Amino acid sequence: SMRRTEDVLAALERTKGMWRELLGTIRIETNSPAFDRLVNTWLPYQALTARLWGRLGPQQRSGAFGFRDQLQDVLPLTMLRPHQARAQILLHARQQFLRGDVLQWWHQTWDGRTGLGIRNRASDPHLWLAYMTCRYVEVSGDRTILTEAIPFLEGPKIPRGQEGIAFVPRLSRDSGTLLEHCLRAVDLTLERLGDNGLPLMGAHDWNDGLNGVGAGGKGTSVWLGFFLCDVLRTIIPLVEDRYGQSRADRYRAQAAKLREALEK
């Protein structure tokens, strides 16, 4: 009840206390007070309110989750709110199809299930799951997340000649650990290499504006090659720890080929 003035004031103090605790986890101090305030206060506040809670970005489709968007948003939260970063990673892992690709964006139903979403030929969203998982493990030291069992999604394939398709997917009976989800994403990209050894662009890469490069099925992405290299660098030790040196060495060989192609 908020009928009494003292109840309102007490609630206000609780809110202020919550923000002081949340925004006081990490403090930087430089010779620029404006920069300090930006990093210490404004950016974490904005990431939480406008990006994760509000989802007000221009491509958020009336509050939809963006697969890469909200994973990028929780990158700083690996230090500020690791439990929230962990939950976000697991939520996104549930938006992956058996083939390894993901919903680029999706709406949640009232009870937290996956509602309307779009499956398309974008070449990078699925890799952000692996990127964020590796960063989270590196910063938090929490390896238990890698063995979390998570179901896949099922749904219609993208028709030939179309860039994407919107539908409500169904939950698959098949599930896998988070690490298996990440490796399906990595394997999918490694299967889609151009003649020059670089990853195919598909509908676009992280730069959505480059949607004409891969329309013919041949255009490749240098950026995606660099991104995949970094994902392989960070995930190979996790693969070796879980599956042994043989599988890790296969990824090392693929990473070496990719680096050579990038140098050219």
Description:
With 264 residues, the protein is an alpha+beta fold. Helix content is 50%, strand content 12%. A four-stranded antiparallel beta sheet has the order 1-2-3-5. The chain is globular. The model has no long low-confidence stretch (mean pLDDT 94).
Kindly list the characteristics that best describe this protein.
single chain, 264 residues, alpha+beta, four-stranded antiparallel β-sheet, two-stranded antiparallel sheet, 9 helices, globular
The number of helical runs is 9
What value does the Rg take, in angstroms?
Answer: 20 Å
Task: Give the low-pLDDT segments.
Answer: none
Based on DSSP secondary structure assignment, what is the total number of beta strands?
Answer: 6
| Shape field | globular
Quick check: average pLDDT? Answer: 94
Strand line-up in the sheet with most strands: 1-2-3-5
What is the H-and-E element order? HHEHHHEEHEEEHHH
What share of the residues does DSSP label as strand, in percent?
5-15%
SS content category = alpha+beta
Task: Please give the share of residues in helix.
Answer: 40-55%
Main β-sheet: number of strands, strand sense, barrel status? 4 strands, antiparallel
Report the end-to-end length measured between terminal Cα atoms: 67 Å
